[in-house]
Amino acid sequence: MGRLHAAKAKLPKIYQETVACPFIKVLEELGQQGFTEILLQVPNRNNTARLMLDIAQSILQNGEGYNALASDAFQEIVSDLYDGFLGAKDREGIKELELSIIPALIKWGEPENGPYTWPADATAVFKVQAAIVSLPPAHATNGLLAWSVSKLTEMQSILKRQNALPALWLKLS
User: Fold this and answer.
1) CB 126 within 8 A of CB 22
2) What is the pLDDT of residue 86?
3) Both ends of the chain: CA-CA distance in Å?
4) Contacts of 47 (CB under 8 A, 6+ apart)
5) Contacts 24+ apart (CB under 8 A), 1-7
6) Residue 36 CB: number of other CB atoms within 10 A?
7) In whole angstroms, what is the distance from residue 91 CA to residue 155 CA?
8) 121 and 127 Cβ atoms separated by less than 8 Å
9) Rounded distance, CA 58 to CA 50, Å?
10) How far apart are CA 167 and CA 118, in angstroms?
């Protein structure tokens, strides 16, 4: 918990308030026993346990400066794409978002899992109010193309979850 608290302090304020603080509060409420029970419920860690660890890693990696240059670039792409496709000024006439109102927080994940996104409706289990986007670490050196593929996946996930995909495609055509 000490590392999470220290990393939280180094995150941008919006991610402190919407990701780190609510997540840490839930972990404190769970306690060591609750945390361990979540890890033991799903031995292969593909559900709640994996989500919990991914949220923790997104906070730690961003707060501790893991792969800082690539992480900053990845986060900037996520933020730019979010603002370009999901920002309020670009959504005129399209259903208002119900969940996440800020860009996803990024993390570097396990290579065998490829790129993936935990949408805001999944992270809400831990009171987190943002999606988490993960890329394999090798993508840190593979340039913009690797990030673009991940971002397309994230945008499709968000739009599908919000039932906004058909309206957005009509607006773009």
Assistant:
1) yes
2) 62
3) 48
4) none
5) 1/27, 1/28, 3/60, 3/64, 4/56, 4/59, 4/60, 6/63, 6/64, 7/59, 7/60, 7/62, 7/63, 7/64
6) 11
7) 14
8) no
9) 12
10) 23
Which two structure tokens, joined as six digits, stand for 10?
């180094």
Residue with tokens 């899992």: 113
Q: Which amino acid is at 92?
A: E
Two tokens at 15?
């991610």
Instruction: Tell me the residue type at 148.
Output: S
The pLDDT tens digits of the residues spanning 10-38 come to 999 999 999 999 999 999 999 999 999 88
Cα–Cα distance list, 37 to 43, 46, 60, 75, 79 (Å): 11, 15, 22, 32, 34
- Binning the chain into helix, strand and coil, the percentages to the nearest 5 are 65, 5, 25
Beta strands in the chain (DSSP E): 105-108, 116-118, 132-135
